[in-house]
Design goal:
single chain, alpha+beta, Trna Endonuclease, Chain: A, domain 1, two-stranded parallel ribbon, 5 helices, 10 strands
Length: 135
C-alpha cells in the first residue's frame, strides 16, 4: 500500500519556488538556483560509527532524500530519524560523484526526483538539462 502524499505548504523561498516550478516551467531555473544556495536537511544513518547518507534503493538509480526545511523532514520521517544539515551544492556534488540521484522533499506533493546526470548538469549551471520529475 502506498502512502498518500503529504500536503506541501511552502515555508521558505526555495519551497515557494518548488511549488511554482511544479506548474510553471519558467520558474524551474530560479528554483534550481535557489536550491543550490540553500541549506538542506538530508536523511542520514550511522554505520560503524560513521555518519552516512541514507539511500533509497529501487528500480534504477539509488537516491538520497533532501528536505528544504526542518519542518519538512520532521513531517515526513519518523521522529527518531537522524539527519544532517548541509549546503545543497556540497551534498549534491557528493551525490553526483557517487552516482546517486535525489528526491527533493520526498513524501510531499510535489516531490521532485533528480537523477545523478541531471545533478551534474545543474552543478555546471546548465539548468535546461535538469528535467526533474514530479513524483
Amino acid at each position: 500500500m502506498t502512502q498518500k502524499p503529504l500536503p506541501f505548504t511552502p515555508l521558505n523561498k526555495v519551497e515557494q519556488l518548488q511549488a511554482e516550478a511544479a506548474t510553471s516551467i519558467e520558474k524551474r531555473t530560479e528554483f534550481w538556483e535557489e536550491l543550490l544556495k540553500s541549506e538542506v536537511y538530508v536523511v542520514s544513518e550511522e554505520i560503524d560509527g560513521e555518519e552516512m547518507l541514507f539511500t533509497w534503493q529501487g528500480s534504477g538509480e539509488d537516491a538520497c532524500g533532501v528536505f528544504t526545511s526542518q519542518e519538512k523532514i520532521i513531517g515526513a520521517m519518523p521522529a527518531d530519524t537522524p539527519y544532517i544539515i548541509i549546503n545543497a551544492r556540497i551534498i549534491l556534488e557528493s551525490m553526483a560523484n557517487e552516482g546517486l540521484g535525489t528526491f527533493i522533499n520526498p513524501r510531499y506533493e510535489p516531490a521532485v526526483r533528480v537523477k545523478s546526470k541531471e545533478i551534474k548538469s545543474m552543478l555546471k549551471g546548465d539548468f535546461h538539462e535538469v528535467v526533474g520529475r514530479n513524483t
